[in-house]
Amino acid sequence: MNMVSLAALAWIAATVALYWCAPRPWQPYVAAASTALLLGVFSPVSLAVLSFFTALAYIPVRYGRQWAAGALASGGAVLAIFVWFKSGMGLGGPLVPMGFGFYTLRALHYTLDSIKRTLPPHTFGQFLSYMFFLPTIMTGPINRFQDFHRDLSRRRFDSALFSKGCERMLYGYAKIVILAAYEVSHILALRVKALEGTNEPLAAYLDCVRYGLNLYFQFSGYSDIAIGFAMLLGFRVAENFNYPFLARNIGDFWKRWHITLSSWCRDYVYMFALSAGRRPWLAVLASMLILGVWHELSARYLAWGIYHGAGIAVWQGFQKAKLPGLSFPGGRLVTEGASYLLTINFVILGFAITKEPDLQSGLQVLSKILFFWV
To answer: Active-site residue among 109, 122, 186, 295?
Structure first.
C-alpha cells in the first residue's frame, strides 16, 4: 500500500478510531489486527514471515530450558531467512516481503536482548503487539521493545499528543508530496537534464544531489508519518533524522541519518566487533557492511558500506591525531567550514554508488564527477 494515498489515510483513521473505542486491554490487539489485515491483503508472504519471526523469537525465551542457546539459535534462523530473501532466493525471485527489513531487526533485537537479560517482564500478547505495531511496520523507525513496553503501560488518550501527532503526519506528507515529488524530483531534475550534453560532470554531481535530497525528504517524511501515527495511538517512537545535511563530520552524519538503524548497528554489531577484535576501524567497517547489506545484498551496497566505513575510520584516526588548529583570527570558522564541505561532498559522492542500478555504473558516475571522464 502506498502510504501517501487516500486508502492509507482511511486505513489509519479507521485504526485510530477502533483503537480508542476498544477497551483499554484490547487496544494493542486492535492495532496488531490492523497490521495483520493490512499485510494479509497487500503482502500475505510478509504476514507469514512476520508471524513466524514472532513465534521464533518468543518461544525459546518463554519455554526453552536452555533459553540462551535457544534464543541464539532463534536469532540465527531469523538472520538466515533474512539473507535468503535478500539474496533473491526467496520464492524463486528477488521478492522482499513488505516491511521485512524493519521487523527483522526488531526480532533480532529482542532475541539478543533476551540473551543479555535486559528485557522487562512481559507477556506474549505484549510482544505480539510490539512485533505487529502498525505505525512502524512499513518504513520504521526501528523501535526497541523496552521503549514500546514502557509506553504500552503508560498510554492514555492525550489531546495534546494527538494534536502533535496530526501535525507531525502533515509535515511528513508535505515533505513527500511537495519537497520530494515536486521541488526535488521535478524542478532539480529539469536542471540536471538541461546540463546534460553541455556540462556532464556538473550534471552528474547535481543528479547525486537530487537523488540524496529526494531520498532524505521521502524517508524522513515517511518517518514523520510513522512517528505521528504512533502518537495518535499514545506511543512515542524514536526520532529517525536530525538535519543530517548539517553534519560537520561523517561520524556526526551517521548520528543524524537513519538514527534508529545506525544506533542498532552500533549496539549489536560495532560493540560486538570492538570487544572481539579491539580494533575500532574494523568494528566500524563491519557495522557499515551490515548496514549496507540490510539495504540490499549487492555489490553496490557492499561498496557503499565500505566507502562509508572507510570514511568514518579515517575520521576517527584524524581525531586521534590531534592536529593543531589554525591560529589566525577566524581559523576555527575556516576549519569548521572545510569540515562541513568535505562531509557533505563525501556523502553526496556516496549517493553515486547507490543511485545507479549496478556498481559499474556508479563508479562511472564517480569517475565523471571526479576526473571529468564522460
So the answer is: 295
